[in-house]
Amino acid sequence: MGVRRRIGAVGAVVGLVVLPCAAPAQAQSPITLRVAITQQVDSLNPFLSITQAGTEVGRLMYDYLTAYSQADQRPVEGVADEWESSDDKLTWTFHVPDGKKWSDGKPVTAKDVAFTYNLMMRDPVAATANGSFTAEFDSVTATDDRTVVIRTKAPQATMLALDIPIVPEHVWSAVQNIGEYQNEAVPVVGSGPFVLTEYRANEFIRLTANKDYWRGAPKYDELVFTYYKTVDAAAQALSRGEVDLVNRMGPAQFDSLKGKEGITLNKANGRRFNEIVINPGAATKTGEPIGDGHPALKDVVVRRAIAQAIDLDEIIEKVNGGYAQRGTGLIPPVFPDFHLDKPNPERVYDPAAANKALDDTGYRRNAEGTRVSPEGRELELRLIGHASRAYDEQTGEFVKRFLADIGIVVDVQIVSDNQLNESTTAGTFDLAFSGWGTNPDPESILSLHTCAQRPNADGKGGTTDTFFCDAEYDALYAQQKAEFDLAKRSEIVKRMQQRFYDQVPSVVLGYDNALEAYRSDKFAGFPLQPEKGGVIMAQNGVWGYYGATPTDNAGRSSSGGSTALVIGGGAGALVVLVGGAWLVSRRRGASAGERE
Amino acid sequence: MTAIVWERRRAAAWATWREFASHRGGLVGLLGLGAIALLALLAPLLTDQTGLDVTRAPGRPFEPPSGEFWLGTDNTGRSVLLLTWWGTRVSLVVGLSATVLSVLIGTLVGVAAAHFGGWTSALLMRFTDFFLVLPSLVLAIALSTVLPRGLGTIVLAIGATSWPATARLVRAQTLAVEARPFIERAKALGGGHAHVIGKHVLPAVLPLVFVNTTLTVAGAIIAESTLSFLGLGDPTQISWGSMLHAANVHGAVSQRAWWFLVPPGLGVVLVVLAFTMCGRALETVLNPRLKGER
User: Predicted ipTM?
Assistant: First the structure.
């Protein structure tokens, strides 16, 4: 799944009335699960695809070396069924069992695994999407058809979470140029529960059930993803029965489906968080200050006061429509092993205490009520947000009011994603909206806040989120990286988040709920991951699609016909046309009359 | 002497007004425009601005129209009536400033091209043609993406893309005026460029420019709404376009909240209609080509 993927990539929502693309023609009567997606598939080549939708299709087509269990996301059998590591954690041996087959009938062997990983280590283009997993690999060898041995340069905690689709050597060894290869020659040979059989960019993706899948055949015949330009259109399509499953809805769409017959809603714990980064003094790897962040923000007292003055509950209530959980640490509650449930000490919303702390530290108010730092600079902060995210726009107004209460002036600037990224990498900001998706393994999200992730002098070479650089945090980071005992590692990871929470390089505002809905008259149920409060789509795996159980109604074609949206769009167009024609005719008549 | 001139001018203005007033459409447009402008100006006196603050929204999200909220509420619980009312201000200000900018550039280029002729004309006209064939919406989108977000950017983006038509029009009219004998006479008597343009050409061209301005405003207001709807405007400012944008991204369609979409749309239609009606009436009065023989 996506590592280090900024949420900025939410597709631009353009156009008020959008008609769904032509649905593919129905075959005789295969049972089909129709899924609406709003995000585009960037590539079907699993070595290149980085979008959520693209990696999800990749997971359906190809098994990974290991999988994440449906119930609690622990490592379970994927391509390999057994594994062991040496005592120094540098050598890992995986066993690939007999009997698994590619969709063209050839057996899946350890050689395919070795081929895939070696390709990524050899060819930088093949490492585009998932290169971080193999970066520390020393060698990968298939000692026989059933055994693959991986040696790493340093102990690596993600060895059972290698999110790399294993591709068939007998197909991919013939590919000359990985970067150019589209992987669209259907049916695409794969090992997953579904086989890609038809693809039209930005229209639909059709996958057929792999009846020989080793875990057992899916309970239905076809899985079709259909594109919708907006979530509104997708939600409408679900309520009319044109699709069976929708996700990524906003509160408004979700609420509009409430109580509709034949539709079941799933409010799941999301894997992403929203935050406001507070520039704690941006600097390069070598400690050279860069950017023009407000110097007062280097003071942890000011950062804490800001965090204390923001009412997270009100933002969740008003902006998220209640569909979010209160923010604490960097890892959302969906991963209970690592989530910081109760920070200690915990910050509560208390503007009076924040005011007092600032008063006590010498940040006095001037005549206009704005606080001035001891150095004589007014606390006027820029807050930049993504133009592509409605959340930023709205939350910005709240933050502006909250901070006004403690004498800090906020100028909310909503800019394009590119401008925002430029500002945050160059350190030319005071406050900035950000947000990240997280993985079951906390490694990547934790690494974002280490000193080493700060950029070099050219502003490149690091993916720091906050320019945070803290010796204690870094020490704990190194410690958890080499800790293989889950309980101990979880303890360290929580201490890291507590440190982060205390130092406040960013305020984690909340964890968005993933809002999904499905036609329960067509499909009886979908396995959630994790079992409690989990999601159907965008899982760490494809349990939701794979385990979907159709009802007796599922085979029948839906009652289609012209839809409210089409009528709405048509009516709109008609009004415009008639109005325009009327104006034109009137104008003609008038001129003719006036000209005599 | 001066008194006679003023007398004549007043008479001419009165005649123009009488003729304008005889066009019922124009009069209706003017009245509507006056009413809208008055409402926009008086908004801070007649309404409470705190109702625009999302953090102090009085209602629940997506409330349908009721006695308390005549046009319902938006996704944050603010009154749509209040938003539409205040949106008038931004839409009008942006529409008018963009028009002034566009007409200013257009007139300058048009007059200069016609008056100086030769190389200057060829150069300026090719420049105009270049902008004329560029799809103006795409150019405006590009401009407002690159420049910092704000009302100034929107004004600039619209102004810089909508002037070529004015330039062409003004150039044609200037050519027609300059072909008349009195211009030749002024030149023969030693009138320089400034004198000819300032005293003779501009006064003759201005009525046309004025008409053109009225018609351009309508286009500029639509352009502002379009850009804001696409999310390129200043989201911290409430305009009709940004309301439509908000309605779209916050799921007003799914909520069937027609009251969030219709008022700003109607606002745009009404203002544009008013400007167009005024402009057309004015055009028939001032444009000699559309005037009947007497």
Answer: 0.71
